[in-house]
What we know:
One of its GO terms (molecular function) is ATP binding. This is P-II family nitrogen regulator. One of its GO terms (cellular component) is cytosol. The protein contains three helices and four strands, in the order βαββαβα. By secondary structure, it is an alpha+beta fold. It has a single domain, classed as Alpha-Beta Plaits (2-Layer Sandwich). The protein has a four-stranded antiparallel beta sheet with strand order 2-3-1-4, with helices on one face. Helix 1 packs antiparallel against helix 2 (70-81). The chain is elongated and about 60 Å long. The structure holds adenosine-5'-triphosphate and magnesium ion (MG). Adenosine-5'-triphosphate binds at residues 7, 33, 35-39, 56, 58, 86-90.
Amino acid sequence: MKKVEVITRPEVFKELRDNLYSIGIGGMTVTEAAGTGKQKGVEGLFRGTTFEIKVLPKLKIEVVVDDEQVEEVVEVIQKTCNTGSVGDGKIFIIPVEEAIRIRTGEHGKQAII
Length: 113
Ligand SMILES: Nc1ncnc2c1ncn2[C@@H]1O[C@H](COP(=O)(O)OP(=O)(O)OP(=O)(O)O)[C@@H](O)[C@H]1O
Ligand SMILES: [Mg+2]
């Protein structure tokens, strides 16, 4: 299993959520986040020397899926979140050792579908 973690613009969330559910994911976690990428919040140079690092509002969406679904999930995210402008976000893929559904005690794949 892998955790696919997306940090992206809040505006795309509804479409992303719908597109992810339409390919059959079992759930997701959404967290309000703030961050910067390469552009450092687009504050840039100030009087040639100092610059302020600003954080911009983002959403972090985490989806745990079976290894064989990772590629499809990444494709959906790229298609949905790519506006072509800086700040579209990042996708991180993290190995997940185990998943357990608390109510039933199901483990692994059974726990995430
Ligand atoms: N290396 C990183 N580690 C952790 N979080 C990151 C990293 N890079 C970006 N982020 C998070 O992703 C958000 C969006 O990043 P962003 O899309 O601006 O990345 P970028 O590398 O500057 O690419 P772009 O040139 O498309 O803007 C940031 O606000 C931050 O929350
Ligand atoms: Mg950026």
